[in-house]
């Protein structure tokens, strides 16, 4: 099945090296022949929103059919070093935007020394050094602070530098730094327009006004924007939020969005999302918050205790109808928002794509199979390809395209990870190839293979 040409037929697929070289109804010969009769052969899934970026996370992602997992929402600070660290050692394809949240702090006069120390640690010790977390923590309070005019200029220089490191755009999770003024964020969109680099944003607040801020900035600056996880940003107003994005596209604006197929979100309890008044903002209470480490639901007492400690929570604040509405819209993509690996992490980290295929396509017929595949492969590839030309040969099952291929059984594919049980591998995903190399074969992870390559922005020098 190829969502771009609409091909949905019985074919033999020939792979040589890292490319698809033949798609034919005639029999093909090859060194390795895999019988996939009865199964769907599709382009590998492209996740535009993957916070889990270690091989431990990638293993679950691959078992869910993912061949490319990108960190576009938050971005990665020290992008060049991060890309170097993953090179030749990664299971599936990877890449990231620049982290505007970090760059704004590094531009602040009072955090210059902290930023310099952090850079030195990354360059000499790598990312795993315990002091790095401490140093970055010192800049953390900056989330409530605004930039001066001089600091705004300084930030612009940081943005330019990261483009040369291979950033896929600008990650702007402004919802996590309320100190960012409207001017600051608009300046980022102006920069994005000038460089033709898309913005990926977690908008300022979970409401329509914040979605309008992103749309207005993109329209006024002439920038491209992708609004991440529209379901958790729009909440009960997803209907009008979808209409805004759909209408903006009809007006010719380059505005896209994505969602994940779950009724709970996940984030850090110490983040600004839980500042005073969070109950009203999110329409939830203590009992709707689940502590990742133990799976327990919170009370006023445990909320206060754990917020001081810091850690990941799962927040149950959405309704099933909102998710269905989001999936039905023809222009929404699927992005997992999968979390860094933890055995009890949000199940979206392991089951997103199988869940869409099993529950929403097969069981409930909320959307068609080809439509779902487009949302998982072709649409994210198209979103990215202006910035990353390599994406033109991904997200498609065509001769000449990359051999990033997912083979699954449409009758059995299903997520198995749950909020109670934590991460478990999806079922019904039989084979996954990354650049022509099996990373999943006969439903099992293949050990010791690292075919993943960096997806780089076009300004990489
Ligand atoms: Zn987010």
Q: TL;DR of this structure?
A:
By secondary structure, this protein is α/β, with parallel strands linked by helices.
N-to-C span: 36 Å
Largest sheet, strands/sense/barrel: 6 strands, parallel
What is the β-strand count? 19
The average pLDDT value, as a whole number, equals 96
Q: Which strand order does the major sheet show?
A: 7-8-9-10-11-15
Shape: globular
Number of H/I helices = 15
Strand fraction band? 15-25%
Helical amount among residues, as a percent range?
25-40%
Structure class: alpha/beta
Radius of gyration, taken over Cα atoms and rounded to an integer in Å: 21 Å
Low-confidence stretches: none
The ligands found in this model are: zinc ion
Which structural traits does this protein have?
461 residues, alpha/beta, six-stranded parallel β-sheet, five-stranded antiparallel β-sheet, 15 helices, 19 strands, globular, binds zinc ion
Plain-language structure description:
The strands form five sheets. A six-stranded parallel sheet has the order 7-8-9-10-11-15. A five-stranded antiparallel sheet has the order 3-16-17-18-19, with helices on one face. The model has no long low-confidence stretch (mean pLDDT 96). Helices cover 36% and strands 17% of the residues. α3 packs across α6 (149-164) and α8 runs parallel beside α10 (238-250). The chain starts with 11 loop residues before the first strand and ends in a 16-residue tail after the last strand. It has helices at 55-63, 79-86, 100-106, 112-125, 130-138, 149-164, 182-195, 208-221, 230-234, 238-250, 278-282, 300-309, 320-328, 348-363, 369-385, and strands spanning 12-16, 19-24, 40-43, 45-47, 66-71, 93-96, 98-99, 170-172, 199-201, 225-227, 255-259, 264-268, 289-291, 312-316, 332-334, 405-408, 429-434, 437-441, 444-445. The chain is an alpha/beta fold and 461 residues long. It is built from 15 helices and 19 strands. It is globular. Bound molecules: zinc ion. Zinc ion binds at residues 73, 173, 202, 228-229.
């Amino acid at each position: 099945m190829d969502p771009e040409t609409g091909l949905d037929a019985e074919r033999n697929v020939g792979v040589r090296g890292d490319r698809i070289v033949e798609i034919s109804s005639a029999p093909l010969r090859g060194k390795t022949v895999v019988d996939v009769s009865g199964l769907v052969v599709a382009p590998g899934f492209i996740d535009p929103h993957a916070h889990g970026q270690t091989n431990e996370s990638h293993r679950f992602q691959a078992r869910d059919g993912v061949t490319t997992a990108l960190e576009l929402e938050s971005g990665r600070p020290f992008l060049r070093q991060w890309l170097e660290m993953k090179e030749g050692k990664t299971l599936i394809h990877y890449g990231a935007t620049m982290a505007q949240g970090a760059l704004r702090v590094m531009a602040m006069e009072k955090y210059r020394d902290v930023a310099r120390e952090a850079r030195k640690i990354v360059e000499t010790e790598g990312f795993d050094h315990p002091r790095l977390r401490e140093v970055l923590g010192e800049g953390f309070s900056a989330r409530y602070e605004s930039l001066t005019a001089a600091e705004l200029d300084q930030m612009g220089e940081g943005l330019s530098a990261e483009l040369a490191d291979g950033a896929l755009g600008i990650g702007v999770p402004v919802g996590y730094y309320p100190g960012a003024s409207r001017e600051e964020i608009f300046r980022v969109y102006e920069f994005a327009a000038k460089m033709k680099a898309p913005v990926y944003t977690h908008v300022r607040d979970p409401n329509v006004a914040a979605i309008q801020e992103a749309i207005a900035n993109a329209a006024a600056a002439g920038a491209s924007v992708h609004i991440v996880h529209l379901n958790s940003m729009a909440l009960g107003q997803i209907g009008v939020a979808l209409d805004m994005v759909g209408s903006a596209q009809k007006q010719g604006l380059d505005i896209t969005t994505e969602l994940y197929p779950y009724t709970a979100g996940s984030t850090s309890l110490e983040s600004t999302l839980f500042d005073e008044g969070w109950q009203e903002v999110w329409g939830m209470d203590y009992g709707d918050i689940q502590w990742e480490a133990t799976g327990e639901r919170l009370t006023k007492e445990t909320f206060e205790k754990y917020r001081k400690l810091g850690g990941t929570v799962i927040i149950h604040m959405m309704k099933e109808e909102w998710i269905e509405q989001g999936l039905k819209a023809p222009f929404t993509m699927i992005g997992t928002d999968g979390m860094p690996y933890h055995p009890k992490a949000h199940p979206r980290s392991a089951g997103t794509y199988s869940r869409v295929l099993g529950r929403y396509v097969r069981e409930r017929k909320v959307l068609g199979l080809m439509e779902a595949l487009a949302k998982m492969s072709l649409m994210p590839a198209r979103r990215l390809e202006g910035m990353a030309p390599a994406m033109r040969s991904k997200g498609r099952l065509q001769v000449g395209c990359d051999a990033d291929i997912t083979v699954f059984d449409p009758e059995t594919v299903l997520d198995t990870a749950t909020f109670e049980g934590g991460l478990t591998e999806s079922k019904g995903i039989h084979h996954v190839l990354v650049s022509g190399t099996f990373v999943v074969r006969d439903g099992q992870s293949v050990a010791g293979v690292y075919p993943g390559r960096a997806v780089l922005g076009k300004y990489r020098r």
